[in-house]
Amino acid sequence: MRDVAIIGIGQTPVGEHWDTSLRHLALQAALNALHDANIEKVDAIYVGNMLSGEVGGQEHLGALVADSLGMSGVEALKIEAACASGAAALRVGILAIASGMLDLVLVLGVEKLTDTLGGETTAALALAADAEYEVSQGISFVALNALLMRRYMHDYGWRGDDFANFVINAHANALNNPNAMFHRRVTPESYARSALIADPVKLFDASPVCDGAAAVVLAPAEYARTLSPAPVRIRGSAVATAPLAVHSRKDPLALAAARLSARRAYEMAQITPQDVDFFELHDAFTIMSALSLEAAGFAERGQGVRLALEGDITLQGRLPVATLGGLKARGHPVGATGMYQVVEAVLQLRGLAGENQVPAACIGMTQNIGGSGATIITHILEMA
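Request: output the structure for the sequence above.
Response:
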């Protein structure tokens, strides 16, 4: 198996792109990545997306993107794993190059969610839950996360406002990210005043519905330096699953798939959690931030919130997270989110994160969650 490196990155601003189609969002991010890699053609294109058919009436994204790029004829596929679709597409690209079957691969994550009404979008997002045993009972993802947050608070004695620093940190970091959706500082007072949407989840606990696209170009690490002056090696890549329905899990607060995928990625990279310099976690809801930190080995059970309370997750802290705003403030265009995490990790490792640069960042980790934790994909990156 060959080692794999990222030689080019590209992204669009995250937001409500009413005047830009899914096709053109994908095209912009892809062209940016190809330009950064200084290449014009790839052997394959893998597109991560969750809801193009449901909310946009457009499936068959592989062929669509290949044609838009003037690459008709190349291998091109859409990859779906709910909110983890972006990282799933990256996983497929890594395997294709590691196997030796392909040499240059474009991996793209794209999502267009704001052209439908709120109720339609919420119903579409619920497709990532168990249709028979969860959705049929009227559950939404906000409600599922509210149930998890309530159980966490009950079991470990935390209060709702103890989660505020996850939000405050994400919004502070997004201020310096020109591609972030929100450039608005959040204070403990504004967090406490934010509207309750599903007790105990407040409006500020949840990431926004939005549009965006992000992409990378992959190549064999053995000759990546002949193609790029700053390749980033993918040291670890792992996928794990858990039961789709939350009530079917032995321990709903354990995020078993996060623990498994992180452990497998650590083993592949031959590192421990203590070696990770920053963590782009999947903060779709603040409760997921706490559970991810615990499952990935950065905090003891029930103590993920403490890392935020004690300032360990800031850019100057022990483990910076959401370094360019995360899902909460950069935005969460679901099928593209995993690729935004990777693009931002590459910026950190290249030393190009501007005012948000993590000092001496050598090893970064991303974790992309599908559904309420049923598919979780972890990647570990370092400068080649």
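Residues 246 and 252 are 6 Å apart (CA to CA).
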